[in-house]
Amino acid sequence: MTVVVGYLSTPEGREALGTAVDEAISRRSELLVVVSDKDGRSLPEQVEERLADIARITAPLDEAGIPHQVVTGTGEVAEDLVATAETHGAGLIVIGLRRRSPVGKLILGSNAQRILLDAPCPVLAVKPHRP
Q: What are the residue ranges spanned by the domains of the chain?
């Protein structure tokens, strides 16, 4: 069983990754980190920054001996996560959510909503810890 996590270089993305690592360890599963190019980055310096960020997150996984793969998405975050989960027979998807205002809580982000509705497995949504 595989654990799939959507990763962006944000507090929400880092919290999702940390939780997914814990889940993969407890389930003795492979971790698939889906990195979607949300902003459609194509400038060389942005590509370099993205590759450096991926290296920063995978180095500790390598050192800890956690089996993992990084999957580069198309930029459609929800589609990337759902498709990866389907392709790899995932047992869990982990996503990070932003904190919202009381009014914002009435509306879930469109990507999160699409993932929850279309996922072929359970979805664990986490928020970053308050400082």
A: 2-126
94: Cβ contacts below 8 Å, ≥ 6 apart: 3, 4, 5, 6, 16, 17, 19, 20, 23, 123, 124, 125, 126
What is the chain's Cα-based Rg? 14
Instruction: Please state the pTM of the whole predicted model.
Output: 0.86
Which pLDDT tens digits describe the chain residue by residue (131 residues)?
Answer: 899 999 888 889 999 999 999 999 999 999 999 987 655 556 677 778 888 888 999 999 999 899 999 998 888 889 999 999 999 999 999 999 876 655 454 555 678 889 999 999 999 999 988 65
Listing DSSP states for 20-84 in one string gives HHHHHHHHT-EEEEEE--TT---SHHHHHHHHHHHHHHHHHHHHHT--EEEEE--S-HHHHHHHH
Domain 2-126 has CATH 3.40.50.620: yes
